[in-house]
Design brief:
Blueprint lengths: L6 E7 L5 E6 L2 H10 L6 H4 L5 E9 L2 H13 L2 H8 L3 H12 L4
Antiparallel strand pairs: 1-2, 1-3
Length: 104
């Protein structure tokens, strides 16, 4: 992950209703890759296409911070992920605090 890149953490909803969480430096391209089932498509989404982007947080300045946020989202229950997707302010603040290790 390059020095000057900005990263996004994203959640995709798959056609079977499951969620996939990832990070990328090019969000639209990554969503397109997930929908293409090509070489770089995640195994989870390959058989669950089409997928749609349901949540993202962008402009994260380091891959380390983005991975931290991704790991946190992956640890959440489905109900808490759905709160994030619905832009629940408390869940968003918890995520931001986790990513930036700061009081939000």
């Amino acid at each position: 992950m390059g020095k000057n890149k900005k990263y996004s953490i994203y959640i995709l909803e798959c056609c079977d209703g499951s969620y996939y969480t990832g990070i990328t430096s090019d969000l639209q391209h990554r969503v397109d890759v997930h929908n293409s089932a090509g070489k770089y498509c995640a195994q989870h989404t390959k058989s669950r296409r089409p997928v749609k982007l349901v949540f993202s947080i962008s402009n994260i300045e380091s891959g380390f911070l983005a991975r931290s946020g991704e790991k946190y989202i992956k640890s959440l229950t489905r109900a808490k992920k759905e709160k994030l997707i619905a832009n629940d302010e408390n869940m968003i603040n918890l995520l931001l605090k986790r990513i930036f290790n700061d009081d939000v």
